[in-house]
Specification:
217 residues, 4 helices
């Protein structure tokens, strides 16, 4: 029954003269419904984007940004290095100037101290030389006074008709009775004294008595 009705409907459709749509006669493949529906929704048919350029653009932009960032870091690092080198150079120069100034001042102070020491030493030596010269003068005066006293005693003996003791006897007595201290503790010179057993001990004059300034009465 269903097949009979279907055949009748198809026979009527063909006999009515209705033709199929023109796109069925075209040799081209008709566009799908989904493409027309999307095209009608946005109003135009956008060209397909190039896949290669769309995929490669983000890495290129990222690489350019990274290179720019690295370049900025390098510039900052170079500037910091230059500032550090300049600071070190200035600091070294300042320290060298300070050291040279300190060395110059120290040398000047040492030279001044050396000059003062030399002046003090020269003054002390001059005083010591003057003291030694004065002592030699006093010794010369004392020896001469003693010699003059001996000459007066010898004249006195001769005037009394007595012969004075000659030099050989005095030297012999010196070798037999005079003692000497040659130890290094005696810094004033060799100390001599007459033995207590000598008969001339009570008559030996004190050399320091001739150093006294006595006025004649």
């Amino acid at each position: 029954m269903i097949k009979t009705s279907t055949r009748l409907g198809l026979t009527r459709f063909l006999s009515s003269g209705n033709k199929p749509p023109s796109h069925f006669n075209s040799g081209e493949v008709p566009q799908t419904y989904s493409y027309h529906s999307h095209g009608n929704q946005y109003g135009h048919s956008p060209p397909p984007p190039p896949q290669s350029s769309a995929q490669s653009s983000p890495p290129q932009q990222s690489s350019a940004s990274s290179n720019k960032h690295e370049g900025s870091i390098r510039e900052i690092t170079s500037l910091l290095a230059m500032f550090a080198l300049a600071y070190l150079a200035i600091d070294n120069y300042t320290e060298r100037v300070k050291i040279e100034k300190l060395h110059h001042d120290t040398t000047a102070i040492n030279l001044k101290a050396l000059q003062v020491q030399q002046i003090n030493y020269a003054q002390e030596r001059k005083k010591r030389d003057l003291a030694m010269l004065q002592e030699r003068r006093e010794v010369a005066k004392r020896d001469f006074k003693m010699g003059l006293h001996i000459a007066m005693l010898r004249k006195q003996l001769l005037d009394a008709g007595m012969k004075p003791v000659d030099l050989e006897e005095a030297v012999k007595e010196f070798e037999n009775s005079v003692k000497a201290d040659n130890s290094i503790k005696n810094v004033t010179g060799q100390y001599l004294w007459l033995d207590d057993k000598s008969e001339f001990k009570p008559y030996l004059p004190n050399a320091m008595e001739y150093a006294k300034n006595r006025k004649s009465k």
